[in-house]
Amino acid sequence: MMGFLLYFALIVLIPLWAQFRVKSTYAKYSRVPSSTYRTGAEVAREILNANGLYHVNVEQGHGYLSDHYDPRSKTVRLSPENYHGHSIAAAAVAAHEVGHAIQDAEGYAFLRFRHALVPVANLGSNVSWILIMIGIFAQLSGMLLLGIIFMAAAVLFQVITLPVEFNASNRAMNQVVSLGLVANKEEGEARKVLNAAALTYVAAAAVAVLELLRLVLIYTGMTRSED
């Protein structure tokens, strides 16, 4: 019982801690203007142009920290506070999303692999728990195993996301420094914003892997009892 409570605490607390870190770090540096005083939209546009990506659009999105790159429409969408903001946080986040656009243009292998996994991961997320719950409550090990396989596809998507995000952040830092979009003394602050954001992906992947391992142990115990 104690082990279950500890496990439950971990899968709840890890994401909460990661969310707290990213929000607190972002809030701190969103109040610190960059020395170049460019908006996030201007930072994104300048990096895109410097890399010959004139066809990629920069648009204002909706919602708090809703920043993303849409590979279908070739558009970088920045949340209102980052699109209009002049802060170090806005510059870092904008550069990170442009990092994904550069990955897309270069055919970055992990990004292509992640895109290929999207339909499988979506199916796994929607179907896995139905099969898993039927397998556990009906004591059908085959059904549970099928659910675990579907879930593994979703977990693989989470894991593959890590190198994609870290690579985008590295590209972002290289771009903002080489183009002079942040001063050298601000590089560490911009990196703190990106590192905090990366924690959310690390936390999500860690929780997904832990849950998958727990289900594998349940399956192993079920098959042993059937022997």
TrEMBL record:
Keyword Transmembrane helix tagged: yes
Top-level taxon: Bacteria
Biological process terms in GO annotation: proteolysis
Gene Ontology molecular functions: peptidase activity
Keyword vocabulary terms for this entry: Hydrolase, Membrane, Protease, Transmembrane, Transmembrane helix
Spans traversing the lipid bilayer: 116-137, 144-164, 198-219
Protein name: Zn-dependent protease
Native species: Neobacillus thermocopriae
Organism lineage: Bacteria, Bacillati, Bacillota, Bacilli, Bacillales
